[in-house]
Amino acid sequence: MKIRFCFLFLLGAIRFLIAQSIDFTHLHVSLELDTNKSAVYGKVQLAFKADTTTDSIYLNGVNMEFEKVTVNNAEVKYASDNKGIWLWPEELLDSNSISIKYTAHPRRGMFFIGWNDETGLSRRQVWTQGQGIDNRHWVPHFDEQTDKLITEIEVLFDSKYEVISNGSLVSKEEEGDQIRWHYKMAKPHSSYLMMLAIGKYALRKTVSKSGVSLWQYYYPDREEDYKWYYYKNEEIFNFLEKEIGVPYPWENYKQVPVQDFQHGAMENTTATIFGDFFLVDEVAFNDRNYTYVNAHELAHQWFGNLVTATGSDEHWLHEGFATYYQWLSEKHLYGQDFFDWERYKAAQMVFEASKIDTVPLGSGKAGSARFYQKGAWVLYMLSESLGKEKFDKVIKYYLEQNAFGLVTTDSLNSAIQQVAGTDYSYFFQKWVYSSGEPAAKVTSKVKEDGVMVFNHTSDSYLNMFFDMKLAIEGQEPSKNELWLITDSASTEFTSMPGQNHRCKYWIVNPNMHVLADITENKPIEYLQIQYEESLALLDRYYAVRNAEQHSLEEKETFLIEVTKNESEFFSVRAEALKQLVEANYPKSDELLLLALQSKDVQLQKEAIKLVKNPEGKLMKAVAELRKGDSYELRESAINTSIAGADPKENAWLNDEFWMENPGVPDNKIAVVVLLYRTAIFQDKEALQDLIDYTSSGYDFLTRINAMQALGALQYFDDEVAANYFDALFSLNRTLSRNARQNLNANYSTESGKEVIDKYVESQMNVWDDFQKRLVNRTFGLNLE
């Protein structure tokens, strides 16, 4: 009884009406997958409650074919378009059920990886990504994050593969050469958090201190590196559960790597999916490892999954909390300096975002730098304001009062009022609902009469007190308040009693406790004392960074001392070294050599960026770092070591070490070496290896690296074109975008256009409508 016609839906009104009259409580979907056709054959059953006035039901379901639709076991009239399906039941009960048999060919939400790879090199996987509203592409349902329900997923699949989904594994039954897997959640969650992952995995099971089952999936061929990509896994779980103060709210926790994931990771309830580019080894661990993502996604199990924001304007409550507790986890693992440096880097990202636009944090258009970094900063400042003890009680109350429900910023403020007895509306108005961050350049000095004068300029709002740390000789440093206001360029502050005391140093916004972009200009001797006397990393860092305003003659001794301080955090030493090199300090090479030969790989990575045309001992140090303890370091060392186009001087490129250690996760070292072998030695085998790396047999990062290398070589032929078009059609947007850029670059040349036109003509009758539309948009063609 299907009715086919088109609707002009008023989506806002529809969502409002459905939310008011229907409550979906349970979703059970049974799936069979055709991996060669990227097709889903499913049957979904939805339980719901509705009031007596409900006469129609709308479900999201993108580009689906519906075969049989029933409500309460009776066939009903229905109509569908490419976005969803309307149902008109004749009668509804207090408790009701919908059953739909359907077929889908998802281009979003569910991804089929490697099944059509002719090289046989790619992993074969199926995985899903539901956030924000993409699960509607493979299962029809009411796809709104505000609607929470219990979900269960059944999948019939080839017995050679593992199938992972949300919740507990209810059953696993053999059916010929296939297995039917059945997973079920025990408690309700938002449907965008449903997940499915299928692949060839090994599994290691552990248990948290509180008894939660932890399942870590990994590739069997990467077992030797398990300790690096799942570094401190159980410790992270135990720490966060204790730090958050509310027991982990779900039945178990699983983590699954997948190929060609378009984000870092996704916090699906009980089952995080993460990009397999985080499957690092001992060397890659020093570049970017999984520990921070591990902590971030785990924190989401409370913040986002247990308590869920009502909409995009409140998204910071998901990402801000997850990032903040990620920071705390990193502090636990790596120490206070690491934590403070993460805050500093996050602040710079926020300041950069504010140069582009002035969208407030409490807007759905705020962007990642604000949702994540500024959100975490807001929570850090809130913790500093309330004090850790009260803050922890507030968070516990916030989670327990809103468990399995919805939250807004007002929910957090309400928790503060209930626990701390204080209304923080002013705080959220300033940091969440208002745009921008305080910024000022402050020039300060001490006059002979003991009065400190602060002259400041600002392009943004100030009008606020800043903590000021003030150290007087013979006294302990004290905390003072400095009032900086936009409409006043000068502020006087009495710094000491009488004439017999001298000011040792002062710091506005010590240890950067407030998210404010404050640059201080003060005499170099006070900067040096600030550095020597400060325990806080950011006070030491700013003492060095603000020395940039002084001449080499003034700061030389100070910065050399910092550069040689082996106990100092790498970023402070790197800043001092950078200033000396850029100021043409005559003995810069000696300091660069000292940094390159240090045992601090992060300092080595920063120092090698400053090396230009190395010779002698410096060249020898660079050469040794070609096999250093970081792939980023190795890449920089290889690039810095290239001695023109002389084959003899570059014979080291033929060392088999590079192909045996190609770089994890993206074969970047192999790609760089192959690029130079092709350019310097005209090595045809190296060129073919680069071409192979652009094929569907490799992950998207490797393919992009190889595309860039071929672009640098200006090489393009029929085989490369075929690989680029395959990448163009990829559902991985990053890969597709890079392929489009490379194809366009080659299309702008006469020879490249000839190759592309020839390929298009040979394939135009093979491509489907989606592929033709994409080709038309890329090249301005009109294929039909």
Describe this structure in words.
The protein has about 775 residues and is an alpha+beta fold. The protein folds into five domains: about 180 residues, Sandwich (Immunoglobulin-like), CATH 2.60.40; about 100 residues, Neutral Protease, domain 2 (Orthogonal Bundle); about 120 residues, Orthogonal Bundle (Neutral Protease, domain 2), CATH 1.10.390.10; about 190 residues, Immunoglobulin-like (Sandwich); about 130 residues. Helices cover about 40% and strands about 25% of the residues. Strands 2, 3, 5, 6, 9, 12, 14, 15 and 16 form a nine-stranded mixed β-sheet that branches. A five-stranded mixed β-sheet has the order 18-19-20-22-21, with helices on one face. Helix 13 packs antiparallel against helix 14. The radius of gyration is 30 Å and the shape is globular. The N terminus is likely disordered. Its EC number is 3.4.11.2. GO terms for molecular function: alanyl aminopeptidase activity; metalloaminopeptidase activity; peptide binding; zinc ion binding. One of its GO terms (biological process) is proteolysis. It is an enzyme of class 3 (hydrolase).
Task: Provide a short characterization of the protein structure.
Residues 1-19 form the signal peptide. With 784 residues, the protein is an alpha+beta fold. Helices cover 39% and strands 23% of the residues.
Question: Average pLDDT across residues?
Answer: 94
CATH architecture of the largest domain: Sandwich
User: Per the principal axes of the C-alpha atoms, what is the gross shape?
Assistant: globular
What value does the Rg take, in angstroms? 30 Å
Low confidence ranges: 1-20
Could you say how many structural domains there are in total?
5
- In what range is the share of β-strand residues? 15-25%
Strand segment count: 31
Query: Which fold does the CATH topology of the largest domain refer to?
Result: Immunoglobulin-like
Which class of the largest domain in CATH terms? Mainly Beta
GO cellular component, one term: extracellular space
Domain Peptidase M1 membrane alanine aminopeptidase: 232-431
Pfam families: Peptidase_M1, Peptidase_M1_N
Enzyme class: hydrolase
